[in-house]
Specification:
The protein has about 325 residues and is of the alpha/beta class. The chain is built from eleven helices and eight strands. Bound molecules: zinc ion.
Length: about 325
């Protein structure tokens, strides 16, 4: 269930080409064959899995082990020049939801095949520089949760039970304690932190069966709004935004994600990358160019109507 997007956000000098195969690690067609095996008994899932494996081709890496603490996926990009480095799935073996966990991670990879772009670059304002590490960690967490909105439906459509979509919920810390003892949570970065805490629990109510996520969300909102009273209205806007279904709009997905980031007082993505199939059938990463963004912006205005646009503008002004 967890995601490590950090590769997308790191400087290219930190990338090291990983060419050696470890035990239980498979690439390309070998990965495809084993994944197909792991999904036996789920024919619809197998069909989509084959399509996803073909889309990534030789860029696909698959690793499985019972020693893993969870399953995860990663799409790693090289930034200058932009290029796909690999798409990787790590599957925790010997759990009661192995096929489900594998399909969950594959569905994360399928989002790029469906045409949704990846947020690639952002800039952190000088006054938030001391919180850069915290802010950088926000993006993969938000991305993972937003992607769950896009993949829960096909997951259930394959015949899997919703209760097996996530392995577990990440629990809530003691918000009462934090609200009174951590000074930075009262500062500018604190509002973003509280918004993310609320958001991660609230959105999980849509992907999880059971009451825990509601209870955690209520607690985050109660204590967060004691520190930042404006959080109540922001929380309402976040809920309305997600429930509007705007995120499913592929053409303007990047604008919608930035709308959400703006609402949460988190710096927006300035560059976006889509992964497409080139004329020779290989997956390639392309940066969205300015022209695409302008066209999309006009369409967005037209498509989304005034309510979402005004959220976008209002939030942007406050940032
Ligand atoms: Zn996930």
């Amino acid at each position: 269930m967890s995601l490590n997007h950090k590769g997308e956000l790191k400087d290219q000098n930190l990338f090291k080409e990983n060419t050696k195969l470890q035990p239980n690690e498979y690439r390309g067609s070998a990965a495809k064959d084993l994944i197909d095996c792991r999904l036996s008994g789920w024919p619809k899932a197998q069909m989509l899995a084959a399509e996803i494996c073909d889309f990534y081709g030789d860029y696909l890496q698959y690793y499985e082990s019972s020693a893993l603490e969870s399953s995860q996926y990663q799409i790693k990009l090289q930034h200058e020049p932009i290029a796909l480095q690999y798409a990787r799935i790590e599957l925790q073996l010997d759990t009661p939801r192995m096929a489900e966990a594998l399909m969950h991670e594959l569905l994360h990879l399928s989002i790029r095949m469906r045409g949704y772009p990846i947020g690639e670059k952002f800039s952190i304002p000088y006054e938030l520089a001391e919180y850069a590490g915290t802010i950088i960690d926000f993006y993969p967490r938000i991305g993972n949760l937003l992607e769950h909105e896009l993949i829960i439906e096909p997951f259930v459509g394959f015949g899997f039970e919703k209760k097996n979509f996530l392995s577990c919920l990440s629990p809530a810390p003691d918000y009462q304690e934090l609200a009174s003892t951590v000074p930075s949570l009262k500062e500018q970065i604190g509002l973003a932190w509280w918004c993310l805490e609320y958001f991660r629990h609230w959105i999980s109510t849509r992907h999880w069966v059971g009451d825990e996520a509601y209870i955690y969300a209520d607690s985050a909102l109660f204590w967060g709004s004691k520190v930042h009273p404006e959080m109540r209205i922001i929380a309402q806007k976040i809920r309305e935004f997600i429930e509007s279904g705007a995120l499913t709009d592929i053409k303007n997905h990047h604008l919608h994600v930035n709308t959400l980031l703006t609402l949460m007082r988190i710096p927006v993505f300035t560059d976006w990358v889509s992964i497409q199939t080139s004329s020779d059938g290989k997956a390639v990463a392309n940066r969205l160019i300015e022209e695409d963004l302008v066209i999309s912006y006009n369409r967005y205005n037209h498509y989304a109507g005034n309510s979402i646009l005004s959220l976008f503008q209002a939030g942007f002004c406050h940032l």
